[in-house]
Amino acid sequence: MNMEQINAIVNDIDSFVWGPAMLTLLVGTGIYLTFKLNFRTWRNLPYALRSVLGKDARTTKRGHGDVSPFSTLMTALAATIGTGNIVGVATAMFSGGPGALVWMWISACFGLTSKFAECMLAVKYREVNAKGEMAGGPMFTMKNALKNKSLGAALGFLFALFTVLASFGIGNLTQANSISSALEQTFEIPIAVTGVGLTILSLIIILGGIQTIAKVSSVLVPSMAVLYVVAGLAGILGNLSAIPHGLYQIFMMAFSPDAVGGGVLGTITVSVMNAVRFGVARGCFSNEAGMGSAAITAAAAHTDDPVRQGYINMTGTFFDTIVVCSITGLVIASSGVLGATAADGTPLKGIALTIAAFERFVGPAGAYIVSIGILLFAYSTILGWEYHGEKAFEYLVGSHKLNIIYRVLFSLTAYVGATQTLELVWNLSDIFNALMAIPNLISMILLADVLKAEVERFQPILEAEEAAKAAAED
């Protein structure tokens, strides 16, 4: 069997695991839990956003933990705000049309609850390791919370195993490859130079553990997100006349593509099913709600209540999809380049589509904005995923003492990713990412009553705090 045949088999498996059954389980779990919790996650989103943007999220005086609630959110966002926000949105809109963006939004609305649930449970059932650090995540939730201990142990092992494998793939190799490709195309930097630089930078920060990763993420993530959003908004404001038609295409092609040119957009033939499929798939892939990865970081937070941290961490889905992905999607839909072809006659897609859209809106600087965005987003993803993978590795081996081995191997892997074209790794990474979600979603469904009880317990506390703040402002 040659490499081409292996790639074809892996591609078929990838298409299956990210098919209708997986997407239904991901979004369906979010829908079920949203109803189960009486839409508290939606109703309390303003409270969650105020908590993140206020001083309380930056304190380490409340409860126990390793880093501040804000730092854990930024580390989790570091892992989720990545190539999916730039390349993933373009891929979804190329494959499913502009309407795919609406389905990304819809999946994100229910993803808020999934992200809240996994992070809240991770804090509630976390442990302290022999080094005195917090150790938590879905694997500890499964081990400590499920009444059937054999089932909990099996699910925890599978989740940790798939997380370690995914950390090297989607969290490292693919991100490093995106960085080296972008820097080579835009700035003509040799991929070997990028590979060495990435390895050294990663090693310096990763060896410092969660404290260093959190500090870097707390500066890098807000900075890069603001830079990208401001650049996108500047382009949108400079081309306001194109926005109404872009919004029209986004909403009409999400539900009725035949109303817009018979469902044909340049080289793209659009259908509602494709808009749903690619919008939901890329949305879940981008914000990772239901995957369980963000819960590993959430468990490190200094907090006095797991529900409080759950609300803070769920805003990651809002910032990732509703804010950052929307900027990319609106620029692409309004620019008029969706469905266009390159000079060689091939359809514009992926990173080339996003670059063309930004160039149309902000001029030649668009290519630099997108390339720098890819560099910062993908590098932060490497840092965030290292922590996820390290804690899963620690769970598998039963000790923190071997973490140094994982850190060094993970850093060296960045060089391989930057210098090799690894189509097989991209597909395998996609598969491991999906397989992570299955045990996590099962455990959340089984613990739905625990989630409901915790949310209802915290609600009077939340309302009292809000009332006290309102009184203080008056």
UniProtKB/TrEMBL annotation:
Family (UniProt): Belongs to the alanine or glycine:cation symporter (AGCS) (TC 2.A.25) family.
PANTHER family, alphabetized: AGSS FAMILY TRANSPORTER, SODIUM-ALANINE, TRANSCRIPTIONAL REGULATOR, LRP FAMILY
Membrane topology: Multi-pass membrane protein
Molecular functions per Gene Ontology: amino acid:sodium symporter activity
Keywords: Cell membrane, Membrane, Symport, Transmembrane, Transmembrane helix, Transport
Pfam families hit by this protein: Na_Ala_symp
Highest taxon of the lineage: Bacteria
Cellular component, GO annotation: plasma membrane
Predominant place of localization: membrane
NCBIfam families found in the cross-reference section: agcS (TIGR00835)
Membrane-traversing stretches: 16-35, 70-94, 100-123, 151-171, 191-213, 225-244, 250-272, 318-341, 361-383, 404-425, 431-451
Protein name: Alanine or glycine:cation symporter, AGCS family
Compartments, as annotated in UniProt: Cell membrane
